[in-house]
Structures
1.
Amino acid sequence: MGLELGFVTQTTMHYTDALPAATAMNADYVELLLDGHHERSTLDADAVAETATEHELDLLVHLPFGFDVGSPYEHVREGAIRELSAALETAAAFDARKAVVHASSDAWSPAWEAESVQGTIVDALAELEVVAGESGIELCVENVPGEWFGLAEFPRLFEATDVSMTFDTGHAYVEGYDAAEQAAFVAEHADRISHVHVNDVRTRTDDHVPIGSGVLDFGRIVRPLATATLSAEVFTPSYEYVATSLNNLRRQVEALDSP
């Protein structure tokens, strides 16, 4: 199977230690969170590229949070798109393959209809997709609970744009999808799901606990995917917990090839 394994850096993790740690874990890539000390204007793209080459790792990025691409207000929306576009250009400078983005808006729901805000988000994502494509990056939109596009609304994104999807297992569980229902969604949309954020849960909250310490069956969830990148996303500063997660995920993925 063409399933590659890596992990998302957390706010305490710097690429200078995350990439050597990834090599020790036998990861295929690292997904750099372009926020905090990895914010684009403070990041040395050449140094990132050199470090990745040294450790024979690919790079993905998670674009920064908190940008209102669906704002009904022109200047807010355009500023968000400009900043995310600049982050994509920085990611391209160190040859990132994929970029994760949230379909977000802080539009005040009592004042703005969902249909209108969702349409604005679709237009913004289509614009960002062009920027990403010109930079050689695959744009992957993540399902986030409480945002304007839950899992049930993703088919609209698929119909209106050519973006790929980042399927987040924990977020799906928060929305009420158990492992069987997640597997069914993945099977139905396998041609659009290029990337997966793999994180475990114990409750209907956004736990992001280490893989294997919660309730989800990841082998079942990702089985429909012939090719994809799978990022362990664990809320921890500990590379030991990340390594445990990646090893548990690797065992489940390798079991898929067993008769």
2.
Amino acid sequence: MPTLAAPGGDTVLPPFTPGVIFTQIHLGSLVALFLLVAAALYGYGVYRLRQRGDAWPVGRTVAFVVGGLGSIAAVTVTGIEAYDTTLLSVHMVQHMVLSMVGPIFLALGAPVTLALRTLPAAPRRTVLAVLHSRVARVLTFPLVAFGIFVANPFVLYFTDLYRQTLLHSWLHEFIHVHFIITGCLFFWPLLGLDPLPNRWPYPGRALLMVLSVPFHTVLGLTIMQSPTLLAGAYYTSLGLSWTDPKSDQVTAGGILWAGGEIVSVTMLGILVLQWVRQSEREARRIDRALDRQEAEEAAAQARDNAVKITNGTPDGTRVPGSDTP
């Protein structure tokens, strides 16, 4: 099928269809390299654990590889990537997955815990030093990560930065990586199972998730109702007869609005589930401690009774010189 030249020398594909998602595979990007390396390292870590007889939850592997890396791959190496500079709505799907869906599953995969359990002593100390460094403490502090996560899309879409990402492939690729990193900074301390600093109690984490919902709503509605097109005349300059840039922008805003709320509600559900499980574990721990305390008290009482019987006179015996039987 013919293609159209776009600003910056890129090509614009014909109408977007489901079939093209599987025919436009692109493995030459920085994100694709990251996905391959991350999958290989994670798989090697799980293999090392099993080789020495240690268990690793299958659910964590599925979350990291399928949910995390798989969702990122679905929007960066398939036909979706081929259309993300042609349709704003496609870009918005990509944005949601890279900044929210992928990082959530990556966090649930607990890759840092896996690394700490498999690395030799020296690299393990290095990882711990990085985790507890001042930079890591600042970036992973929930309020800082929340501010970065919320402010980024407003800066991207309401400045000339977004148009520049469409014109320059290297900047476009950088934004993809930036989405993933900022998403991980926000979701990892909230949902992750790794030993990160600045872990808030579950009520505080749930509050941050609730506070993030209005920002997605405001951003989505603003994009839908904006009288001007994002990226200026970029989309109209493509001259596509099969799409209307204004209608596509309304669709993109709706995706951001609805997608943000769906992901946030799902996040709250996961947080509540983790909270309940932690409470159950804590209750079991307290029960075990009480059982141990009762057993120790019973054993101490038994020892005291034994000492009394040994040092005293058994019941039913007669003490010499006494008239009392």
3.
Amino acid sequence: MLTEPNRTTVQISNHLSKLTVNPTRGGAIDKLVLNGRTIIQPMEGLGYESSLLFPFPNRLAEGKFSFQGQSFELPQNDDGRPNALHGLVHDKAFEVTASSESSVTLVYNYDGSLPYFPFPYSLQVTYTLEATSLEMNVTAKNTGNQMMPWGFGWHPYFLVEKVDECALQLPKVNKIHADDMLLPNGKITEENTYNTATQIKETEFDTCFKLSEKQGLNHTHLYYPDGGLLDIWQEDLFPFIQVYTPADRKTIAIEPMTCGVNAFNSGDELKFLDSGNDWSMRFGLTYNGVE
């Protein structure tokens, strides 16, 4: 069922699952319930809640990058650190272009008018809601006349109430170590702690992991204290996972990313689109409740 309770949100529902999307807030999710469990809801004090991160996720050192002989400098917006953070679409108004009982499609068209990113593009996202799952399909298209660099990520905060009592299981990954500016410092180590479901306890995350073995679909598992399981899956076009625990310990961010932190400078899995070309990718969530 599709409803529009006000001008700023769109809702779809499927049995005990409900999705509320906010086109005016970068096409992000306002609230998600899967099989009766609230997975995502508005929380005070958090930023970029469920935002689509494009044309780059995470951090860009000093907001600067060079491409094809030109230098660019984006505004710094990283809470006092000299970085650009999380791309350019999180606060943009998307247009709802299609909807049905189980899905909604939104599009944002950028004309390339910002001098620090003069690359026009179209970004489309389709949310498809099933009884126990949500799938997201994203297509980025270069609508300009020159090649453009890009990366994409998603920034959900999953409601857990007490993250210390949850358990986490990662796919096979390496840990990307960071400096004081939360940028990669060149050190990479194998991460084995979360090969199996391991209680998070007091661990603080603001950590990027890179898949060491890519599968067609790669799964991160979040186990709730009552036995519920949230499966966060991503295609191998997303070889990175950022895990972040906010200070209040009531949520955890598990973020699929197509490229590494500071990728516009490091080139770590950075993607490129020729004029007129597009790239599609998918990721999603499945919730298995308590038996």
